[in-house]
Amino acid sequence: YELTQPPSVSVSPGQTARITCSGDALPNQYAFWYQQKPGQAPVLVITKDSERPSGIPERFSGSSSGTTVTLTISGAQTEDEADYYCQSADSSGDQRVFGSGTKVTVL
Amino acid sequence: EIYLVESGGGLVQPGRSLKLSCATSGLNFSASAIHWVRQAPGKGLEWVGRIRGKPNTYATAYAASVRGRFTISREDSENTAFLQMDGLKTEDTAVYYCTTLLESWGQGALVTV
Q: Which of A3, A9, A13 is nearest to A97 (CA)?
């Protein structure tokens, strides 16, 4: 089972970045989004498709439509430059999988 | 606050074994699933496997790339999970994270094969 993400997204400061993640089981399995900066462990930014954990800025939001989930960064800031990964489960729920990651550049 | 700390990483020859530990605090450990995730140098995140908590009878699941070579276990009395890695291959070289797959992640342990 695979989750497909674009390799890179570029956005100007203050603009909106959208990262998609596609997978056949996504209509029936929650998606999670992580931000990872170089040399650091991943940080959960969206849980259960669209919920924002405590401490995550409001500019991060998630949505789901059919086999695609989307992470949106509204008003991107330079500190949002990072790799972003989606994660979900296959149709059985037993196997977890990560997307290949999307490098977000803010400049 | 929840903490996860991996230990046991290092340099190992192909074909040999290594065991990682994940010590936790602040977590309702016996009820929590613990996952292992790895990241090869310059590559993305790869789910390795998980062990569920006592309410789910400690069920395990593994990625196809490690099934039959890696074993995840836990000791609830010590709030610690383990990743036993046997028959290591050069492609297993990575930073290994233990995590709840939610907000809680360890800092990672480097394994070089």
A: A3
The token pair that represents A86 in the structure block: 């989606």
Give pLDDT tens digits for A17-46: 999 999 999 999 999 999 999 999 999 999
3-class secondary-structure state, position B99: strand
**Residue B54 φ/ψ, nearest 5 degrees:** -55, -45
Q: CB of A26 within 8 A of CB of A88?
A: yes
Nearest to A32 among B44, B46, B101 (CB): B101
Confidence bin at A85 (pLDDT 50/70/90) = very high
C-alpha closest to that of A24 among A49, A3, A6: A3
- Cβ of A95 within 8 Å of Cβ of B46? The answer is no
| Smallest Cα distance from A85 to chain B, Å | 8
Q: Residue B50 and residue A96: Cβ atoms within 8 Å?
A: yes
Q: How far apart are CA A85 and CA A43, in angstroms?
A: 10
Residue type, A62: G
Q: Which two tokens stand for residue A104?
A: 């977000």
B95-108, pLDDT tens digit by residue? 999 999 999 999 99
